[in-house]
Amino acid sequence: MCSKSLDFNPGGHVTALRRTVLPFAGFAVVIAAWWLAATLITGKDVPTPGEVFATAWSGLREPEGLLVDIRLSVVRVLIGVVVGCALSLPVGFALAWFPTLRAMFDPIINFCRALPPIALTPLVIIYLGIGEEARLFVLVWAAFFASVVVLYEGIAAVEDIYVRAGRALGATDLELFRRVIVPATVPQMFVAVRVALGVSWATLVAAELIAAQRGLGAAIQRSASFFRTEEVYAGILLIGVCALLMDIAVRLVQARAVSWQERVVR
C-alpha cells in the first residue's frame, strides 16, 4: 500500500493575504478616515486626499519641482544613515563585548539619544555654519544614536551557549567575533538600519531648517510660510512614501540575507 503526501498548507494562503492585501486595506481605511475628517471639519482648511494627491502629482511633473526635492532629501538621508550606522557598528560591538564600557557610556548614549535634533540646530549653526555639512551632521547624529542602542542591545542578547561552545572548541576572541557574534547579530544590523532610516526621515525637516533651499523639508517649510496647506500635506505624504519605500527595500535585502530567520519565525 502506498500513500501520497499532499502539500497542503492553509497557513501559506493566510500569510500571503496578510502580506499583500491587508497593508492596502490599512491604507484604504486611513485614506477614508482622512477624507471623512476633511469633509466634516469646516473652517480649518483641511484638504481632502484627492486634493493632496493632485498637488503632489502636479509638483512631481514640474521640471524643477518635487523630484529635485526628493532626490536631495533621499541623498541626505542615505548619507546620514550610512555614516551613522558605520560609526555605530564598532561602538555597538565594543559596548556589547565589554560590560565596563557599556556601564560607563550607556547613560551618556541614552542622554544624547533623547535630545531632539531640532534643539541642536542653533549649536550646529554656530559651529558648522549653514552649509550642507551642518544638515548632514544632524542626520548622522540622529542615525547614530538610534542605531547604536539597537545594535548593542541585540549583540548583548546573543545566547551565551554559543559563546561557550565556541570557547570549548578552542576559538579565540577574534574567531568568536567573526564566526559567532557577527553572524548571530546580522538580523539586528538590519533592524538598526531600519530604525536609523525611520529616525533620519523624521529628522529631515529639522535638518533642512538649516538654510536649505531645496529638499522635502525645505519645501514643507516654504509652503507653510505661504499657508499653502495642500503643498504641506503633499510634502509630508512624500516623506512618508520615501521612508516606506526605503524600509521595504531594506526588508527585501534582509529577507535574502537572513532567510533562515524567516523559517525559524514561522
How would you describe the overall organization of this protein?
- This protein has 266 residues and is mostly helical.
- The protein is 82% helix and 0% strand.
- Helix 8 packs antiparallel against helix 10.
Low-confidence region ranges = 1-8
Give me the number of helical elements.
11
Q: What average pLDDT do the residues reach?
A: 85
Major sheet details: none
End-to-end separation in angstroms reads 33 Å
Report the strand count.
Answer: 0
CATH classification, class level: Mainly Alpha
Assembly type of the chains comes to single chain
Structural class computed from helices and strand pairing: mainly alpha
Tell me the CATH topology: MetI-like fold
Q: How does CATH name the architecture?
A: Orthogonal Bundle
Silhouette: globular
What's the structural domain tally? 1
Rg calculated over all Cα atoms? 23 Å
Query: Helix share of residues?
Result: over 70%
Order of SSEs: HHHHHHHHHHH
Determine the strand fraction and express it as a percent band. under 5%
CATH homology superfamily: MetI-like
